[in-house]
C-alpha cells in the first residue's frame, strides 16, 4: 500500500514558499530606504529629479516584488489548506478466502468443449455479418448513380 504524498516533502511547495518569502523581503528591502530618502529630500526642499523620479521607479519595482511574494504566500497557504481538506482515504483491502474460492472451483467444473463451441459459433456469426455487410455494400454501389 502506498503512502499518501505529504506536502511537507514536496520540493515544489517549499520552492514556492521560499521564493515568495524572498520576493516579499526583497521588495520591502528595496522600497523602505527609497521611500525614506524621498521623504527626507522632499520635506527639506532639496529633492532633485534623481531622488524623486528614480526613487519612484525603484518603489514601483519593489511593489511588484512585494505583490508577487504576497500572492505566492497566499497560494502556498491555500494549497496547504486544500491538501488538508482533501485527505487521501485509506485503501481497504478485502481478505481473500482461498478455501471458499477453491470450493467454488471444485463445485462447478468447466467444460472446455463448450467454450470452444461457443467461440466457433461467435466466429461464424462474425463471418456471416461480414458477408451480409459486403452484399449490402455491393447492392448499394450498383444502385448508385455514379456507377451507371
TrEMBL record:
Keywords: Membrane, Transmembrane, Transmembrane helix. Residues 123-142 have a biased composition (Basic and acidic residues). The chain crosses the membrane at residues 12-32, 52-80. Residues 99-148 are annotated as: Disordered. This is Dinucleotide-utilizing enzyme.
Amino acid at each position: 500500500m502506498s503512502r499518501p504524498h505529504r506536502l511537507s516533502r514536496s520540493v515544489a511547495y517549499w520552492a514556492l514558499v521560499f521564493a515568495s518569502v524572498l520576493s516579499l523581503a526583497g521588495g520591502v528591502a528595496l522600497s523602505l530606504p527609497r521611500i525614506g530618502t524621498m521623504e527626507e529630500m522632499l520635506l527639506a526642499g532639496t529633492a532633485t529629479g534623481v531622488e524623486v523620479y528614480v526613487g519612484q521607479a525603484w518603489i514601483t519595482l519593489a511593489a511588484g516584488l512585494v505583490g508577487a511574494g504576497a500572492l505566492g504566500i497566499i497560494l502556498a497557504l491555500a494549497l496547504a489548506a486544500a491538501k488538508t481538506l482533501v485527505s487521501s482515504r485509506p485503501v481497504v483491502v478485502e481478505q481473500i478466502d482461498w478455501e471458499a474460492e477453491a470450493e467454488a472451483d471444485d463445485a462447478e467444473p468447466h467444460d472446455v468443449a463448450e467454450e470452444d463451441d461457443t467461440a466457433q459459433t461467435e466466429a461464424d456469426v462474425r463471418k456471416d455479418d461480414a458477408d451480409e455487410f459486403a452484399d449490402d455494400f455491393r447492392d448499394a454501389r450498383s444502385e448508385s448513380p455514379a456507377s451507371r
